[in-house]
Amino acid sequence: MENLEKILSEHPFFRDLDEDSLNLIVGCASNVRFEKDDMIIREGDKADKFYIIREGSVALEIQGPGKGKITIDTLSDGEILGWSWLFPPYHWRFDGHAQDRVRAIGLDGKCLREKCEENHDLGYELLKRFSQIIDQRLQATRLQLLDIYGIPS
Amino acid sequence: MKGSMQPRRFRIDKVYWETDDTFTHELIPIDEGRFFNFHPGQFNMIYIFGVGEIPISICGDPDINTRLYHTTRVVGDVTKRKQHLKVGDLLGIRGPFGNGWPVEKAKGRDVVVIAGGIGLAPLRPIIYHFLNHRDDYESITLIYGTRSPDKILYRKELEEWSSRLDMDVSVTVDAAGRTWKGPVGVVTKLIPRIISNPDNSTAFVCGPEIMMRFTAVELLKRNFAEQNIFLSMERNHKCGIGFCGHCQLGSYFLCKDGPVFSYDKLKSYLSLKEV
Ligand SMILES: Cc1cc2nc3c(=O)[nH]c(=O)nc-3n(C[C@H](O)[C@H](O)[C@H](O)COP(=O)(O)OP(=O)(O)OC[C@H]3O[C@@H](n4cnc5c(N)ncnc54)[C@H](O)[C@@H]3O)c2cc1C
Ligand code: FES
Question: Which residue intervals define the domain Cyclic nucleotide-binding in the entry (chain A) (predicted)?
Fold first, then answer.
């Protein structure tokens, strides 16, 4: 636990979070490991966790029309995987598969949701931090849609 | 300026198709003086006899002056005709033109090269230069983004550079199938992962204008100084030597004052509206 607390407190996502809130989060955290090609999350499955990737990379995939699986994003060291645990109906919208061996900290979404309901300060802090990540991903997706390497018309 | 309006003839010695719409010509000078010296980041005006003339960056090794390399993406009339030229055909070349990348200013510093799409072509000479003079520079990072794995240029060089211990190479694509094992996402997403010290880093960026705009914003967020971010601009060119005004951008003639500028000089011309 001590180790988890240290890792989480040093992670930029939890930077400057007060000690009580951090302790509550540590109570919902565990170390996890996935082997290459393991499915970490599967579209449609219940989203009851999110992950802080410590090492390795995860490909986010969707089924393209008639094209098989298409990777639309990859996440690696230090990045956060998953926010569907925050929003009903709490189901994953993508597949996430390990491109190589992945070490991560898994955070139990249900446990965190309950703690956020009881402690709104914690809930607000977490939502603020997740909103930033969602905003960054939205910007990146917009750039992908713009085809920034294409020929200007 | 002597001879800058008069094309020299070059013979196509090899044609390499890099992707379905992009090819490289390896050329040999056949007129007076069998050598062609250039500075990384400079370009030539290439005349396809009877068709027209277009600016294309020089993309070979600046330490090799007996062969000239140009990578061209097929987009319109002249490039469409250029793609049909064969080994042995002749081209007219004026150049080299432009200021090129300020490699001297980056000596003793970390260098970060960021390319988008065809923008890797004007940057390839600077990578050769850094590697040819490896001791003059600290870390070398290359980040290259392109639409999909089949659009990746210079695969052989990228593999070679990736295998070096003294250079860090990342290639990212916008979308890919399962066979692609590298990062997916736009090039700007990889910038926060650059392990370098912005105070002692110089960035060299080339790609479509929109890609350069967002890359510059991301570098500024990482505390790069505006004068340490260099961008290569493309505009329509005609004379290539500052006479005709075709390439004018504000108070600059891109062919003469550019195509490379530091971000502080260009920022007022690059629209920074949010997406
Ligand atoms: C300094 C400089 C260096 C360049 N280096 C290279 C290079 O190394 N490799 C390469 O493939 N191209 C390079 N270009 C771009 C190249 O000059 C143009 O693609 C070419 O002139 C198009 O001619 P065209 O007759 O085939 O197309 P056109 O018929 O003139 O145009 C066809 C389409 O291409 C678009 N287009 C035209 N010029 C450009 C441009 N500069 N950038 C993006 N889209 C354009 C037009 O908007 C139009 O939609 C460079 C341009 C400059 C100014
Ligand atoms: S192309 Fe004529 S002034 Fe630049």
Answer: 13-82
